[in-house]
C-alpha cells in the first residue's frame, strides 16, 4: 500500500497573509513596484522647480542691483579722459 498524499493548499494561513493579494496590489502600469513609494519625491515641496529655486538664494536681487549699478555708472559717472593715457602727452605729471 502506498501512503496517500494530503493536499494542504486549501487550508488558510493563520497570519492572514496572502502572497497573491500582495502581488496583485503592488502591480502598476509601468511594472515598477516601488513607483508609488517614490512618488512623494516629485510632488508638493519636492517638485523640480521648488528644489531649483532655493539653489541660488539672492541671485535675483544681486542681478537687479548690478543692473542698476551699470545704468547709474553710464549715466552719472562719465569719465572725461577716454582714450588718453599717461604716455600720450595729454596728462602731465610734475
The total count of helices amounts to 4
Share of helical residues: 25-40%
What separation lies between the terminal Cα atoms? 130 Å
List the secondary-structure elements in sequence, H or E.
Answer: HHHH
Give a quick account of the main beta sheet: strands, pairing sense, barrel closure. none
Mean pLDDT: 77
Structural notes for this entry:
With 94 residues, the protein is mainly α. It has a domain at 27-77. Helices cover 38% and strands 0% of the residues. It has four helices and no strands. It has helices at 19-26, 35-38, 48-53, 59-76. The longest helix is centred in the last third of the chain and has 18 residues, at 59-76. It is rod-shaped, with a radius of gyration of 38 Å.
Strand-helix topology:
Layout: H1 19-26, H2 35-38, H3 48-53, H4 59-76
List the keywords.
single chain; 94 residues; mainly alpha; 4 helices
In short:
With 94 residues, this protein is mainly alpha-helical. The protein is built from 4 helices and no strands.
Amino acid at each position: 500500500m502506498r501512503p496517500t498524499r494530503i493536499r494542504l493548499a486549501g487550508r488558510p494561513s493563520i497570519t492572514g497573509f496572502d502572497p497573491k493579494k500582495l502581488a496583485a496590489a503592488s502591480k502598476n502600469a509601468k511594472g515598477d513596484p516601488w513607483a508609488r513609494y517614490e512618488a512623494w519625491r516629485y510632488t508638493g515641496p519636492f517638485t523640480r522647480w521648488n528644489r531649483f529655486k532655493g539653489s541660488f538664494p539672492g541671485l535675483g536681487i544681486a542681478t537687479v542691483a548690478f543692473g542698476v549699478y551699470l545704468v547709474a555708472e553710464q549715466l552719472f559717472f562719465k569719465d572725461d579722459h577716454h582714450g588718453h593715457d599717461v604716455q600720450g602727452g595729454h596728462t602731465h605729471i610734475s
